[in-house]
């Protein structure tokens, strides 16, 4: 992390024993990056009170050094990819000197529940992805200032305790056990919603209209209906579902990227109004004919630069690539083939 006033952390010595490795730094430093030092603890590390960022990514820490609790200037704390369990995190809820923390990352550890983050009244980013969390209980205590919440790759079965996040812009709940889209109605500033690799069968955006990116890849959808009011939507990812018909798209006039690959679609439709469409992913479907595609994409013929149709019956048509290049005068990529 390069920032004014920051001194780069010294490179680890691979020949030194972990216990003998001492980290020395300028006591006026504001950023300390100890990524991949393989530290079991911070006994050999000085922690200047001037620190605003402390990055402990990819170490072997199983507990939190109590000295961290004295870093009153700290804005960013990352414990990504360590061995931290629930009990080890508990002290942080009493470290009131850290109340001004803005970014807290526990990604890729051993947590089974949401840590108590109630003392952080200015928190903007909270990341507990890649753990073993079984419920979102505890999120109700997280500050309503939050802008980014990441809880992907856990064991969460239900969307809950997020009603107060009126400022939230990014919500990542991919790779969990969600079956229903719910309790999203208060997230009126949400820009990105990532729900891939769950068990969701139907789209329900709870009335939200300002979202720009949505991913529902690898779920159990059989219909595209539910996005009609998301007129600000720019990117929509729906690959690896059971969708058989393109529908509910005609109002999404700001859409730039549409991915409906690996579904059961038999023909291209309902995208004639999408004049901003640049990327269209239709590969691994059941589209029989190229005839009709020109009419289906009439609004974006000049705008489209990338199209994927491989692994459809139509991709075996004589002159497949030539036909597509005639339809789309500014095409730059057809499947894996790039054009200058």
Automatic annotation (TrEMBL):
Keyword Repeat included in the entry's annotation: yes
InterPro entries in the record: Leu-rich_rpt, Leu-rich_rpt_4, Leu-rich_rpt_typical-subtyp, LRR_dom_sf
Region (Disordered): 1-21
Cellular component, GO annotation: cytoplasm
PROSITE patterns attached to this UniProt entry: LRR
Gene3D superfamilies, alphabetized: Ribonuclease Inhibitor
Family matches, as Pfam families: LRR_4
This protein's UniProt keywords: Leucine-rich repeat, Repeat
Name this protein carries in UniProt: Protein phosphatase 1 regulatory subunit pprA
Organism field: Morus notabilis
């Amino acid at each position: 992390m390069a920032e004014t006033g920051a001194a780069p952390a010294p490179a680890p010595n691979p020949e030194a024993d972990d216990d003998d490795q001492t980290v020395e730094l300028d006591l006026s430093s504001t950023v300390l990056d100890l990524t991949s030092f393989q530290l079991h603890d911070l006994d050999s590390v000085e922690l200047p009170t001037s620190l605003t960022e402390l990055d402990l990514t990819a170490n072997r820490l199983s507990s939190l050094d109590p000295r961290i609790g004295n870093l009153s200037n700290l804005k960013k704390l990352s414990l990504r990819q360590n061995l931290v369990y629930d009990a080890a995190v508990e002290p942080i809820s009493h470290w009131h000197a850290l109340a001004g923390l803005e970014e807290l990352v526990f990604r890729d550890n051993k947590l089974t529940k949401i840590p108590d983050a109630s003392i952080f009244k200015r928190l903007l980013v909270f990341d507990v992805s890649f753990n073993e969390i079984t419920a979102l209980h505890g999120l109700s205590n997280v500050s309503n200032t939050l802008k980014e919440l990441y809880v992907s790759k856990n064991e969460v079965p239900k969307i809950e305790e997020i009603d107060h996040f009126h400022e939230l812009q990014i919500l990542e709940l991919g790779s969990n056990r969600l079956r229903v889209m719910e309790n999203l109605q208060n997230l009126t500033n949400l820009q990105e919603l990532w729900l891939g690799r769950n068990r969701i069968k139907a789209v329900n955006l709870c009335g939200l209209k300002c979202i720009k990116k949505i991913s529902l890849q690898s779920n159990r959808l059989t219909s595209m209906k539910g996005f009609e009011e998301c007129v600000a939507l720019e990117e929509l990812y729906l690959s690896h579902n059971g969708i058989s018909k393109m529908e509910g798209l005609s109002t999404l006039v700001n859409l730039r990227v549409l991915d409906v690959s690996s579904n059961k679609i038999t023909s291209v439709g309902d995208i004639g109004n999408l004049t901003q469409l640049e990327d269209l992913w239709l590969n691994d479907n059941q589209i029989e004919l190229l005839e009709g595609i020109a009419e289906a994409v009439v609004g974006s013929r000049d705008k489209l630069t990338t199209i994927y149709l491989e692994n459809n019956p139509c991709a075996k048509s004589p002159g497949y690539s030539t036909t597509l290049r005639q339809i789309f005068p500014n095409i730059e990529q057809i499947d894996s083939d790039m054009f200058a």
